[in-house]
Write a structure and sequence with these properties.
This protein has one domain. The protein is built from 15 helices and no strands. Helix 4 packs parallel to helix 6 and helix 5 packs antiparallel against helix 6. The longest helix is centred in the last third of the chain and has 27 residues.
């Protein structure tokens, strides 16, 4: 059974965003934020407006840039992928954001997988020797379904999965399509959470009720419950097989 502390990895980005939005809402709905705070807010809103305009005027360039940026972040296992997923949902909407993140996250994971397999094999073997033994045993027992559960339930950090799986016998093709399918539910929930964030008009005329909307609270509630439900479903499926 996965230690409880690992289960919380899934919730940290969501909790951070909720707290940030709550603080932002409380500050902006108060008596005032001062000239400096107002100037910073106006600057950020102006940049967001320009980005939205660029998306409208040059959609192909913006989508390609967003795709490459996400592949780089995921491929190098940099922090912030969850926040980026929600940002893409806010920026592009649910379906475009979902397709964009799904393809770019899998591409980035595959890049990381290949780097670890062909360039960093010795380093990974030394750094993750204990995890590698466990991964190989589980992979021999469960096959590609083991990778599927790792993608579906983020009990193991993204970096560790990419690094250690690169040293297992799994093929690149299998790694790609299993990762693609396994990350779909989580990607969908994070993108949906992003679409629930306040838009430009709400940010220009903020209030707690507008920022902490029922849709946003529902989105993060589902996001928090998903790992528990997915874990139970995966365990039940294993018992049936």
């Amino acid at each position: 059974m996965t230690p409880p502390v690992r289960q919380r990895r899934w919730l940290l980005p969501a909790v951070g965003v909720v707290l940030l939005i709550a603080v932002l809402g409380l500050v902006l709905s108060g008596s005032g934020i001062g000239s400096v705070g107002s100037a910073i807010l106006e600057f950020l809103l102006a940049q967001l407006t320009r980005l939205k305009q660029a998306q409208t005027e040059h959609p192909a360039a913006v989508y390609c840039g967003a795709f490459v940026l996400y592949v780089v972040v995921a491929g190098l296992s940099l922090p912030g992928a969850a926040i980026m997923t929600m940002a893409y949902g806010w920026m592009f909407g649910f379906w475009p954001g979902f397709v964009l993140v799904s393809l770019s996250s899998t591409a980035g994971a595959t890049v990381a997988f290949l780097i670890c397999r062909y360039l960093l094999r010795d380093v990974i073997q030394l750094r993750f020797s204990q995890q590698l033994a466990g991964f190989n045993t589980a992979f021999e027992r469960e096959g590609a379904f083991y990778l599927f559960t790792l993608r579906l339930i983020p009990a193991v950090p993204f970096l560790v999965v990419n690094a250690v799986m690169g040293l297992t016998p799994i093929s690149v093709q299998t790694y790609w399509w299993v990762s693609q399918i396994g990350m779909l539910p989580g990607t969908m929930l994070y993108v949906y959470a992003g679409t629930s964030l306040p838009g430009l008009e709400e940010l220009r005329n903020p209030s707690v009720t507008k920022i902490l909307s029922p849709q946003l609270l529902i989105a993060f509630t589902i996001l928090g419950l998903f790992p528990l439900v997915a874990r139970k479903l995966a365990s039940r499926f294993k018992k049936l097989n």
